[in-house]
Amino acid sequence: QVQLVESGGGLVQAGDSLRLSCAASGRTSSSYTMGWFRQAPGKEREFVATISWSGGSTYYAESVKGRFTISRDNAKNTGYLQMNSLKPEDTAVYYCAATYRVVATTSSSYDYWGQGTQVTVSS
Q1: What's the CA gap between 47 and 86, in Å, rounded?
Q2: Which of 14, 34, 108, 110 could make an S-S bridge to 97, C-beta 3.0–4.6 Å?
Q3: The pLDDT value given to residue 103
């Protein structure tokens, strides 16, 4: 199993940046894909970005492409989501997730989830 803890959320203004972190523990010696999802009030959880174990493959939702960057540091068992040019519509709870499957963009493909961190972007 992999345990995940997100941090770095907060309240920012439109146009600002934030970097979310996801610290992993447990069975981190095995290769796992890491993903970020978000859920806004009254909406379903949606895919944001994912990165392979090696970091060589990344995928983004169209809504964040060019503004968000996913990365990871396996030596620190930590993943990151750098969010630039934030918009009010980015407001949501952001979740980190992990799976031993290959890179995946659906929430059902992920087995392990963090508790989430709130990101609020004011206009």
Answers
A1: 17
A2: 110
A3: 77
